[in-house]
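Team,

Forwarding the record for the chain on the shared tracking sheet. I've put the sequence and predicted structure together so nobody has to dig through attachments.
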Amino acid sequence: MDSNLKRALILENYEKPFHKGLIDDDSYLKENKNNSSCIDNFDIQLKIEDGIIKDIRFDGEACAIATSSISISITKLLDKTVKQALDIIENYEKMINEEEYDEKLLEELIVYNDIYKQPSRKKCATLGILGIKDLINKSISGDK
């Protein structure tokens, strides 16, 4: 993907993030994720019905990489089965860690394919999606 297109996609999702804002609904699983080395701090909500991700919401303060990555992640994971979502997340983690991954599965998340060049930004790029992964795993195990 062209670097100008990457930059534009990241900025668009930072300035107007998708599904930002929490809702008051006890049917959602909730998680807080933060990066102890910077300001990144998200509260994340997840709603799964019949094995399908129906809604993901977040709120908090974070850098452009963290905010845009959770925004893009949400658009990619909505309406996926739990298994599909976990496959996407696994491939995303592999990409971030410079391992072999399925580029087609990631679609717009590919904008972070060179984040490894800035090791300190890996946590920013994974904070939100790993919070979503934690919530999915809680839903599987039945934890609240």
